[in-house]
Amino acid sequence: MKCEKFWDDASELIFGNTAKWDSIPDHLQSHLDICPKCRKEFMLISTGLDALNKEIHMEESGPFWHSMKQEIKKQVGIPRRRISFRLNFFSPRGLTWATAVLLVLMFVFRWSVFTGPSLTSQDLMVMFGNDPIVSLYDQSSPDIISPGQTDPDPYVYAGLIDAWTVLLAETYENHNHDGRSLKFKKDSHKRDISSVFFYNETVG
Amino acid sequence: MSTRDNELVTAFLDGKEEAFEELMSRYQRQVFYLVKSLVFDSEEAGDITQKTFIAAFKNLNKLRNRGMFKQWLLRIAANKARDHLKTKKESIEFEGWMEPDCKNIPEKRIIEKDMVRWIKRALNGLPARQKEVVSFRIFHGFSFNEIAGILDIKEATARTNFHFGIKALRKDLLKQGSGIGNEV
């Protein structure tokens, strides 16, 4: 075997990994046995690489690693802990959160949502003689003129629009022709329903 | 079963300090020795290792494939070491050849020391890429596939660099070694 061939074959052994030097294949060993130059070179290179490998992997002291790590930590800083928030409305936690959010929203919007009474509430208020919208309408205080009757018995009609229309129509028919004046707004327009819902009727 | 790198990376980004500790204990030495096999100096290797981890942790959120953390980290280390060597003028000086004598231990030590300096000089004379491939292969036993991943090159390129690297290395060693290895 020529020296160049030896080195071509031995390259992977020598330079591939220092761990392989203990087991030299026979065909390479036979060349080393007969070639003092290659043997010397092989020995020198392997010795040098082995020594360099040991030098590179020489273990550093504990404080060396520790101080390096501390410095890295100081420079980097641990990111702020992110809150993992995956709300599952079917879990107790999700329900709690949903309720809390709902309560907060109700509190925030309490003035805009819950201030005005509903139509039904208005009706009830009217029934109890405490209508808040009376002053808003021209015809909010219908005149009830009942000639000859000094102490009229008041009735209050209240209801939703369809029922209103019926009631008002009946009232109009029943009482408008008996010589008494009953004024009310008969508009069925929604806006006016609150102006129509109350009036006093004198039952003769 | 140990936690995977991708899980540790995610945990670190979630602000868990123990993930930082685990990643450091896994790779601190590996990065350090990889860098040291390129710069041959503990202090410089320590500085570069530090810079490597700082750069890695600060840019960890940009790492798309978190399972490739190790490869990504070693690549940063190799790049940092390369940048460092570019700016550093080589000052290793070869002080002559000494015949080996294995019977005399102190003398053997001297020979080893000279050989180490000799090999360092030869390695430092290689182009950066060849030096990286050769060093990673000799001193860390990385496969060509692993080297290709770290250096972001093709495996065939890694093999070629290794082939030409060791050829040039041996040529340099022969030149310095007064004709050792002539054809028999």
Question: How much of the sequence of chain B is in beta strands?
Answer: under 5%
- Terminal CA distance of chain A reads 140 Å
Instruction: Flag low-confidence runs of chain A.
Output: 127-147, 149-165, 175-204
| Overall geometric form of chain B | elongated
Secondary-structure element string of chain A: HHHHHHHEHEH
Please tell me the overall pLDDT of chain A.
Answer: 63
How would you state the average pLDDT of chain B, rounded? 81
Considering DSSP H and I runs of 4 or more, what fraction of the residues of chain B is helical? over 70%
Topology, number of strands of chain A: 2
| Rg calculated over all Cα atoms of chain B | 19 Å
Ordered list of secondary-structure elements with their pairings:
The complex is a heterodimer of chains A (204) and B (184).
Chain A: H1 3-16, H2 26-34, H3 36-56, H4 62-76, H5 92-108, H6 110-114, H7 119-127, E1 144-145, H8 161-175, E2 181-182, H9 193-196
Antiparallel strand pairs in A: 1-2
Helix pairs in contact in A: 1-3, 2-3
Chain B: H1 5-13, H2 17-39, H3 42-58, H4 69-87, H5 105-124, H6 128-140, H7 144-151, H8 155-176
Q: What does this protein look like?
A:
The complex is a heterodimer of chains A (204) and B (184). Chain A is mostly helical. Chain A contains 9 helices and 2 strands, in the order αααααααβαβα. In chain A, strands 1-2 form a two-stranded antiparallel ribbon. The N and C termini of chain A lie far apart (140 Å). Mean pLDDT of chain A is 63; it is low at 127-147, 149-165 and 175-204. The longest helix of chain A has 21 residues, at 36-56. Chain B has 184 residues and is an all-alpha fold. Chain B is 71% helix and 0% strand. Chain B has 8 helices and no strands. Chain B has helices at residues 5-13, 17-39, 42-58, 69-87, 105-124, 128-140, 144-151, 155-176. In chain B, α2 crosses α4 and α6 (128-140) crosses α8 (155-176). Chain B is elongated. The N and C termini of chain B lie far apart (55 Å). At the A-B interface, α1, α3 and α4 of A face α2, α3, α5, α6 and α8 of B.
